[in-house]
Amino acid sequence: MTLDNMTPRQAKPSATRRLRAAGTVLVLVASLAASGCSLLPSSNDSNDSNDPATTAATSASAAAPKAKADAKPTQPPTAGEALADKVKASLTALGNNTSSPNREQMMTAMLDAGAVKEKVEISIDRTPTGLAVDAIEAAAPVAKECVIGQVRDGKAAVTILPLLASGRCFVGDQH
Fold it and tell me: How many CB atoms neighbour CB 121 within 10 A?
């Protein structure tokens, strides 16, 4: 038998090679899908972008949705939001005077903000070993929310979180 009479055999692609090819196709399809229409030229990519009339029309159309969004009637703040604003101001003033306030100072700041004394919860200001804490927190329930304020290194932070099922703002009995 001579080499001229022999027909070349086609090697069947192995399962690994087919898997790699399928993976490559999937990666290409995913990248095209992720890029979406960004590959297509937009209407703003035309050569008329320096035309003053086009620029004015584009600016006017961009301003129109903003004007409608600003036209929404503003709702008055909730009781929690109103107290949070007052607590933020009160704790900021406290933080400006002392970087690490104690429990009495936090109570005074919360009462100055309008919180009800019997409902204010304040975290400990000393660890069980007698060291000063890094931050002190105070909380006051309002409706079904808790206005929680913290002073750390003289900086105040305030947030509103849901009231716990126990009806309190803090977990545990260290308040």
Answer: 18
Residue 20 tokens, joined: 């790699």
pLDDT in tens, the chain (175 residues): 565 666 556 556 566 677 677 667 665 555 555 555 444 454 454 454 455 444 444 444 454 455 555 556 788 888 889 999 999 999 999 999 999 999 999 999 999 999 999 999 999 989 999 998 999 999 999 989 999 999 999 999 999 999 999 999 999 865 5
Radius of gyration of the chain, Cα coordinates, nearest whole angstrom: 33
pTM, two decimals, is: 0.56
Strand partners, 159: 148
Locate 33 and state its tokens: 């899908």
Cα 99 from Cα 164, distance rounded (Å):
29
